[in-house]
Write a structure and sequence with these properties.
The chain has 690 residues and is an alpha+beta fold. The chain has helices spanning 2-16, 18-35, 41-49, 51-86, 88-96, 101-141, 155-182, 185-189, 202-224, 232-262, 271-312, 336-346, 377-384, 390-399, 410-419, 443-453, 493-500, 514-517, 522-536, 543-586, 588-596, 601-638, 647-683; strands spanning 323-326, 353-363, 374-375, 406-409, 431-435, 458-461, 464-468, 488-491, 504-512, 539-542.
């Protein structure tokens, strides 16, 4: 009989508190996914290229784990407290019928144990599957497909997930069960009520809302303009303004709710009651709503920024060449290519490459007057004639330092363009093209400079006039990003040899052959060939290093941000949902009075639904609007100059993600409404006054 009671109570609690049970399952999934990162194929691969960075990332995992344990403990404690408050009368009846307090305590532990076991049985398989999917998707981002993926199950992650989850669950339950079991029967049987709070004049609330809005505007201005990212004190000030501004905004919303109540139409059923309830909930719970809004904002920003960066960071973009070789022992730069070919042939590796070609890069050697070796007054004048803008000013500043540019050989660069599927450059004897690495420019600035180059402006190279023509070039000169030129001139071969005076650096670029790729994925081919090249002593850089570096940033921006976003989202929605359900129970007598006066179940559900829409919708609305500025502020601080040109594209991806999360918020709202409807249904039955 006792065991049947435990099973029935456990089932009823999960049914009545589906929001909290779902939060437990999601928490388990988040725990496992963050703890299993180190065993995933992609992370094992990354450790071979970016071991130091990956090790530092993995060192942060325990910190994230500990922080999450602390956050979820308060979530579980708060939600369990709500459950126990709703069952106070039930507990009082058990004690009144003769149940010992120790047996009541044991019953609560057993019920919670069953719920925890079921949550783990659902959460762990889901976590393992999602972890594998994320690993496969991340590998797909490299542009290589499924690369010999092997199923991985991290037993240590399972152990720490179970240990952490059960520890915080048991701790919270022991505290709450002890408090409940020690209360007197009369206290348990009495219904809790909301304590009235002092009401301030409407002017105070209005001023608070205005001050909060101003503080939020200042905070986002400082973040978007980059002021907050200059030093720690400014970042602290920005965060303080944002947090206090949000608190004041929600505190001041009481005036808005009061205004709506006064202007409400009397012919709507329970209109005054509904908005009085909303007004009271905002008065009593404005701090909780503000905290929930801040957590939702953090989740939206993490989701938006993480997905925006990862989604627009095309790791396979610009992949033209696979290897770059160097030979610092060659006495003459012209001997580098023959030496590399000979070394590869000597070690039986010449058939691994379908293409081997030079990339010659030098400096102006016909003069030692470095400050006046190159001038482009015509370009600068054309830029100054354009409408004033930030991009124009940055271009003028950057080009003002280009008095001693690098030189690139035209035939070598044309071979690179041919392999990348782009048309070759056609330059006359007195013509040159501009090369700027994407690390040092943006799409808008490149477009602006292309407008100037369309007029073929005349510049001077060591006193000789030449014309700049074509568009700005930016194809990577070598495999890894060890060479990033802020400004260079692409010259015809004869002009290049003349101005460099035969003193230049030679890099040998290589493309893998079909034989090297036969039966292997691109990553496997890289790994196998790297082992062979390591034995030869040939100095090389492979595209694998470039992949590893970019993939690491993708991992850092997706795994961690998505993990934090999930935690913040679960905590925020559970807090705000449980807060409303607790408040609704404390005002249960009001609903019972309305029932005695003739209110129907449908009318009460409509009233409660409107209250939930306002109570949960306000934090989500404020967070959604703020997240548009928050994501843009994050891009300002964390993006490099190379990727800032894709901010508009990232913002579109982020906006889509924010919209998706708003749909998730709507689902949360529907779950709370269903729970509210079930509670109201219990009130429709006549109850005897104790």
């Amino acid at each position: 009989m006792f065991s049947n009671l435990i099973l029935w109570n456990s089932h009823r609690s999960r049914k009545e508190n589906g929001l909290f049970f779902s939060s437990l399952v999601i928490s388990i999934v988040a725990f496992y996914m963050i703890l299993s990162i180190s065993t995933q194929d992609v992370m094992l691969f990354l450790q071979k290229m970016e071991s130091d960075a990956v090790d530092k990332l993995l060192l942060l995992i325990p910190a994230f784990y500990g922080m999450t344990l602390g956050i979820l403990f308060f979530l579980i404690y708060f939600a369990c407290k709500c459950q126990f408050e709703r069952r106070r009368h039930e507990f009082g009846v058990y004690l009144m019928l003769g149940m010992r307090r120790s047996k009541l305590f044991g019953m609560l532990l057993a019920e919670d144990f069953l719920t925890s076991i079921l949550a783990m049985l659902i959460g762990l398989p889901v976590a393992v599957v999602l972890s594998e999917i994320v690993s496969l998707v991340t590998a797909k981002l490299v542009g290589m497909g499924i690369i010999g993926h092997q199923f991985s199950l991290s037993w240590s992650a399972i152990e720490w997930t179970l240990a952490g989850f059960l520890a915080i669950k048991l701790t919270a339950l022991l505290i709450l069960s002890g408090r409940i079991s020690r209360q007197e029967i009369g206290t348990l049987l009495s219904q809790p009520t909301n304590r009235p709070k002092k009401q301030m004049p409407s002017v105070i609330y209005g001023l608070a809302a205005i001050c909060g809005s101003v503080m939020l505007a200042v905070a986002y201005y400082m973040a978007i303009q980059g002021i907050a990212w200059t030093k720690v004190s400014m970042m602290g000030l920005t965060l303080l303004l944002g947090i206090v501004g949000t608190m004041l905004l929600f505190y001041g919303m009481r005036a808005l709710i009061a205004l709506i109540v006064k202007k409400g139409k009397g012919n709507k059923q329970l209109h005054v009651f509904t908005f009085r309830q909303i007004q009271e909930n905002v008065i009593h719970q404005s701090t909780s709503m503000a905290i929930s809004s801040l957590l939702i904002l953090a989740a939206l920003c993490c989701f938006g920024a993480g997905v925006g960066i990862a989604g627009t960071n095309s790791l396979s973009s610009g992949h033209v060449i696979d290897y770059t070789f160097e030979d610092h022992t060659a006495e003459d730069s012209s001997q580098v290519l023959p030496n590399i070919k000979a070394a590869l042939k000597e070690n039986g590796l010449e058939n691994q490459f379908s293409e081997l070609f030079e990339m010659r890069v030098g400096r102006i050697r016909t003069t030692e007057d470095y400050d006046n070796a190159y001038s482009m007054d015509a370009v600068m004048d054309s830029l100054r004639s354009l409408p004033q803008s930030e991009d124009r000013d940055v271009l003028l500043n950057n080009l003002g330092y280009a008095t001693y540019p690098y030189l690139i050989c035209l035939s070598d660069y044309n071979r690179l363009l041919e392999l990348s599927g782009k048309p070759a450059l056609q330059l006359g004897e007195k013509e040159a093209a501009v090369y700027i690495d994407t690390e040092f420019t943006t799409v808008s600035r490149t477009t602006m400079l292309n407008q100037v180059l369309a007029g073929q402006p005349k510049v001077e190279l060591d006193g000789s006039p030449i014309h700049l023509t074509g568009e700005v070039q930016s194809v990577n000169l070598v495999t890894d990003r060890s060479i990033t030129l802020s400004f260079a001139l692409i010259l015809p071969d004869e002009a290049f040899l003349y101005y460099s005076q035969g003193m230049y650096d030679t890099y040998v670029n290589a493309v893998l052959s079909e034989q090297a790729l036969d039966g292997n994925s691109l990553m496997t081919a890289y790994l196998d060939l790297n082992e062979k090249l390591d034995e030869t002593g040939i100095e090389y850089e492979s595209y694998l290093q470039n992949i590893g570096r970019q993939l690491f940033y993708t991992i850092a921006s997706s795994y961690i941000t998505l993990y934090l976003a999930i935690v913040f989202l679960v905590v925020a929605n559970t807090i705000v949902g449980v807060q409303f359900l607790m408040s609704q129970q404390k005002t249960g007598r009001r609903y019972q009075t309305l029932i005695r006066l003739g209110a129907t179940y449908e009318t009460l559900c409509q009233s409660a639904g409107k209250q939930i829409t306002w109570f949960m919708g306000l934090p989500v609305l404020v967070a959604a609007v703020s997240s548009l500025f928050g994501v843009r502020a994050l891009f300002t601080g964390i993006l490099s100059s190379r990727t800032r040109g894709t901010v508009s594209e990232m913002l579109l991806v982020s906006a889509a993600m924010i919209l998706l999360l708003c749909v998730i918020e709507y689902i949360y709202m529907r779950v709370v409404k269903r729970s509210s409807d079930r509670y109201l249904l219990t009130l429709m039955q006549p109850q005897r006054e104790e």
